[in-house]
Amino acid sequence: MEDERSFSDICGGRLVLQRRYYSPFCREFCLTCPRLSLCSLTAVTCTVWLAAYGLFTLWENSMILSAAIFITLLGLLGYLHFVKIDQETLLIIDSLGIQMTSSYASGKESTTFIEMGNVKDVVINEAIYMQKVIYYLCILLKDPVEPHKISQVVPVFQEQSSGRSTSQCGLFQTPGLEWFLSQA
Amino acid sequence: MGLVSRGAAAAGLGAASAVVRPGPPDAVPNPVPSPPPGGAARGSSRVPGMVLKAFFPTCCASADSGLLVGRWVPEQSSAIVLAVVHFPFIPIQVKELLAQVQQASQVGVAVLGTWCHRQQEPEESLGHFLEGLGTIFSHEPWLQLCRERGSKSWSCKAIRQQVPVAPGVPSEDQVMLIFYDQRKVLLSQLHPPTVLPDHQAGDAVASSGSLAVVFDTVARSELLFHGDQYDEGPVRLSHWQSEGVEASVLGELAKRASGPVCLLLACLLSLVSAVSACWLWKLWPLPFIRSKLSTCEQLRHRLEHLTLVFSTQRAQSPTQLMRKANMLVSVLLDVALGLMLLSWLHSSNRIGQLADALVPVADRVAEELQHLLQWLMGAPAGLKMNRALDQVLGRFFLYHIHLWISYIHLMSPFIERILWHVGLSACLGLTVALSILSDIIALLTFHIYCFYVYGARLYCLKIYGLSSLWRLFRGKKWNVLRQRVDSCSYNLDQLFIGTLLFTILVFLLPTTALYYLVFTLLRLLVVTVQGLIHLLVDLINSLPLYSLGLRLCRPYRLAAGVKFRVLEHEAGRPLRLLMQINPLPYSHVVHTYRLPSCGCHPKHSWGSLCRKLFFGELIYPWRQRGDRQD
């Protein structure tokens, strides 16, 4: 069973939330981020190349131009591989754990799995971001040594700092979340 | 379970947490029927509300029908299937085998249920036969896994005899199938390593995570995986090694050879360390020289490493094994790079060229220093120096340079021989060659070090004198008992002499300060170059290359955790998940398996360094271990 809703984040990009229902004790929430915009890519490339051309007219060394090309390429590859997140997924399996996957634009996937035994609670936290207050969902982890203490606070969908406010509000309204909060 | 309602109380985070209340319990479908609380016959045999997790090895998915053998963990409601016993078998022999495994591995292995891999039409006789087995091998709950041949549809049931909802009807649990690759789980190591205490068969550790228990169970049950399908044993098992036990000829040979080789090398190394610990080396000034030279430190470090690697004791834990492997690979790489350097040096008479270039370079450096001093003795940067002091200091340092140059010229016939022998030391490793280079730089710039010390001491003396006389000028003095500045009444002649001296020192300050500045900068330059060399040596010493190589080629060996993937799902069928190993990130690998380095790190922070420079205290940024304070 699948369900799709779209929201917009603070910067105006389009976010898509998909909910998949696999079984009574397994659900998946998938948040797709806005793609890399051609405008910003063109703007950055032009800036770098104009700066390189300016330096070239100053120093008359053609190495500067080749260096600028390398920097642009490597910078783009690095951005796609390490920074730009395409999709974030939250998979909740009853009595097993919670898994958060971030897949980057270059195809790399980084996964974190938190066992149910380590989850102390799931809360909604407020944070002040610039001039507004945003809400985000986070998981509290137990300390292995002291079961009553909280050892870590793990925000869910943490890479999407710009998309938190609106998308999370959309997340809160879905009936799936009530089920999710009642597990654990 | 409603833990969220306690979240508001537990989350003392300072941020207000708004809690979303779940709807009334009827609105949330609860698929697991909770049994009456007093119904559990075997004490802790179930946790109400938990879904039963069956960990099934992927290698057994195509095996023939039989019995499931594994471990049941009641606290986490999970059944870890280790192998499948095929028909025909004699129940007594199966029980004997399980008792054997249980005794050897301290893992509570038991028959968990039945496995049925059948054709399209269900065979009634097989079904009844499998159910009958439940009475011979009683286990609570009894798993019944079933798969249709050639299709992806699985079915599984977990039957509990002793906890009936309605009397006479055995209750069923919801089951979740989790597939795991047995070989990878067996070979992998979880980080951070959770130490599970040795426990008796049948007990389980509730506090550790369920996944650590899975890894531990599979790792301990190696005895179960020893036989393969070609063995003529009484019981026919199916597991990851049933196609044939994994082994390699080279591995076996290396294992056999490693015993005597380690013994021989350990004897040699103990001989070398005995010689180096001999009393002859304790005669002064040898310990002093040894502490100053970084080459000796590096050699000692390497000797320690080699002793550890070739010690005849087996490694106690996987961490120790990795450490030994890392040290061995590091030493091998070091020696390989050193040999490359050696071959490069000895080809086309590089050593001769280096030796020929060395003396002119030293001459050039001395000449530049002389120019510098002449410049300082004149009007450096337009500043006006005190002529007399300037001349004294300048001539003093010029004489030193003259001595140094004579010394270098005296040594020049022997330099090529010395360099040739030093170049031979590169076969001990690149790190040794780099340490020798660093020591040679220190020796060649010894005059700069001396100038720095003279300049610093002079400046330091001046600064202390100035501060003390400044206090006198203001009518105060330093109270040593109370460690503070107190007012004091001086005599007239004390004040007169003090003010006179103060004035003299103030007017001589620019000259001394300039000499101090120049020589400190030169010294810092030399220290930076030496520091970079030491950094490179440190890198080669402490980088865990074997672990990095393992992470690159066999990422499942170093596991940070697991990840799950939901497999194709059909309505009405149980949920199937695939459990894969999540490898450790490279930064964590380096952090966890870093070898201990020499310990030559700068001991000062930037603030204290600046303070020392300002007050003229001597700086020794690269302190070796066991150095005495100067």
UniProtKB/TrEMBL annotation, chain A:
Keywords, comma-separated and alphabetical: Membrane, Transmembrane, Transmembrane helix
Phosphatidylinositol N-acetylglucosaminyltransferase subunit H conserved domain segment(s): 89-158
Membrane in keyword set: yes
Pathway: Glycolipid biosynthesis; glycosylphosphatidylinositol-anchor biosynthesis
Endpoints of the signal sequence: none
Transmembrane segments: 36-56, 62-82
GO biological process: GPI anchor biosynthetic process
Entry keyword annotation includes Hydrolase: no
Pfam families, per database record: PIG-H (PF10181)
Coiled coil regions, renumbered to chain: none
Assigned GO CC terms: glycosylphosphatidylinositol-N-acetylglucosaminyltransferase (GPI-GnT) complex
Family affiliation: Belongs to the PIGH family.
Protein name, UniProt field: Phosphatidylinositol glycan anchor biosynthesis class H
Gene: PIGH
